[in-house]
Amino acid sequence: MIHIEELTKRYGNLTVLDRFAMDVAEAEAVALWGPNGAGKTTVVRCILGLVDYDGTVEVDGLDAVSRGKAVRSRVGYVAQELSFYDEMAVVDVLDFSASLRGFGTERVDEVIDLFHLGDHRLKRIAELSGGLKQRLALASALIPDPPILLLDEPTSSLDAHSREEAIELFERLRDEGRTILLTTHHMEEMGMLVDRVIAMEGGRIVTECAPAALADELGLRVWLHILVDAENTAKAQEALAADGFDSRLNAAGIVVEVPAQRKGEALKVLYRAGVEIEDLEVWS
Fold it and tell me: Does residue 261 sit in helix, strand or coil?
């Protein structure tokens, strides 16, 4: 569905994308993963024809430059920074979006039901939570029922509850068989949402792999901040050390550095040692 070859984008002397190449098959879900400045969003903008570039970008067999309008009609796009007029009502936003695409109120009613926005249809944008705004953005993108979804950092500005709701929505859309390309720097959501990860840095591909393999491929590590009863601190550190985990104490608990895919193993060590965990934080 998406074919990219020798994609290069420069801003003056700065090369943002350097001969980037990618193929996304129909009904496949792929994540572009990497730090800020890796070039992820620029790939999305090139697919949409929002910037000029060198190389080839095709969507459903159509060239993104010469057939830009036809390409965009096949794509539903949700930007990282959602931009709505605060004084507009939810239904007005969807009516406006539908009219631009040549759809009537019937389709608006369908997406309102699909995304459970019925109780919010008359609310102003300013009254919506981050999660509801994300839901509205998806509803707007899905009005033409496009086969392809481009999601740019879709959960970056959401709180934990809204992020969980958004991921459930994305899972449902993926299960419908849509082709999905998302950009992200969150490892957790990738494992739930995508079939394959393309890791980027400096406008180039570093590696391609299954989500579960990314941490090992790149040597990614996280820190567990574990709170245990003060009487069990020494016992916990001894158990962790015996299983090869380095730990240190801070003012509130134990900090353990682990490979990103071995978080559960460290917790199992403490469970087997009979150490009760009072609280846990993950730092990345």
Answer: helix
**Which CATH number is 2-217 given?**
3.40.50.300
Percent with pLDDT over 90 in the chain: 64
Q: Is residue 53 within 8 Å of 4, Cβ to Cβ?
A: no
Tell me what pLDDT residue 23 has.
97
Tallying the residues shown for the chain, one arrives at 284
Query: Own/partner pairs for 185-189, CB < 8 Å, 24+ apart?
Result: 185/33, 185/34, 185/35, 185/36, 185/153, 185/156, 186/155, 186/156, 187/33, 187/211, 187/214, 187/215, 187/220, 187/260, 187/284, 189/155, 189/163
Q: If you search the block for the tokens 């020798």, which residue do you land on? A: 6
Stretch (H or E) spanning 142: none
**Encoding tokens for residue 38?**
């890796």
CATH class of 221-283: alpha beta
For residues 122 and 90, the answer to whether their CB atoms sit within 8 Å is yes
Whole-number percent of the chain with pLDDT over 70: 98
CA dihedral 158, 163, 165, 167 (to 10 degrees): 130
Domain boundaries, the chain: 2-217, 221-283
Q: Which amino acid is at 148?
A: I
pTM: 0.80
What the block records as the tokens of 157 is: 């500005």
d(CA 115, CA 93): 14
